[in-house]
Amino acid sequence: MNETKATGNGPARPKLLVLGATGGTGRSIVQQALSRGYDVRALVRSPEKATGLEGAQISVGDARDERALRKALAGTDAVVSALGTPASPLREVTLLSTATRALVDAMRAEGVKRLVCVTGMGAGDSAGHGGFVFDRLIFPALLRKVYADKNRQEAVVRVSGLDWVLVRPSVLNDKAVRAPVRALTDLSAFHGGTIARADVASFVLDQVQGDAWLHRSPLISW
Fold it and tell me: Which of 89, 96, 102, 209 is the most exposed place for a label (fewest CB within 10 A)?
């Protein structure tokens, strides 16, 4: 990451750009980042979508627009991407990979190195570990095209040359925090699970400065 100025109380918190800030997980990331003392900027498509993001600096633009991304990135130290897309049984999905390509190019241009990207259980080598209902019913009926794009998104991140972490949450819910979170790369004994968005947000923010999962793709679950 870019260096941050030290203060009498230790190093300053990084200046953080959050994409997907208006989604459930994104909102939790913004709120927790603010509570940790981060300087938070959120890129949103319209100001009306920024309700509930008070305390964050709002930058308006499309996440697929490299110029808007560069403007939002200026002066930041790290990026969290919590971009999501609705289930799409029939129509091809390209938003995630398109936005991530633009983001990588913008980060390179602005000299921002740290990227924590939220994808999901079912992406990459976590496919087939969601349990019977997720793997046999939900995934093929509703999420196949979404996850094809998540796979493209992950591929873009892996070859980006950035300091990246890919975070794959299990099935999301809005329950209270239930730490500690399990973070797994060996999925041989994992067959589905759930996790609160608040727990995902906490884990994601730990990766903004920590290197424990650098260049890795943990699946996180309760």
Answer: 89
What's the longest Cα–Cα distance across the chain? Answer: 56
Q: Structure pTM?
A: 0.93
β-strands 163-169, 219-221 pairing: parallel
The strand pair at 182-184 and 219-221 is best described as antiparallel
User: What ranges make up the beta strands (E) of 27-73?
Assistant: 39-44, 57-60
Of the chain, the end-to-end C-alpha distance in Å amounts to: 30
Question: Looking at the predicted structure, is the pLDDT value of residue 171 above 80?
Answer: yes
Selection from 117, 106, 37 nearest residue 72 by Cα: 106
- Domain coordinates of the chain in residue numbers? 6-221
Computed from CA positions of residues 121, 126, 132, 136, in that sequence, does the dihedral angle turn out positive or negative? positive
pLDDT in tens, 48-89: 989 889 999 999 999 999 999 999 999 999 999 999 999 999
CB of 97 closer than 8 Å to CB of 147: no
Name the nearest CA neighbour of 147 among 162, 174, 133, 128.
128
CATH architecture of the domain 6-221 equals: 3-Layer(aba) Sandwich (3.40)
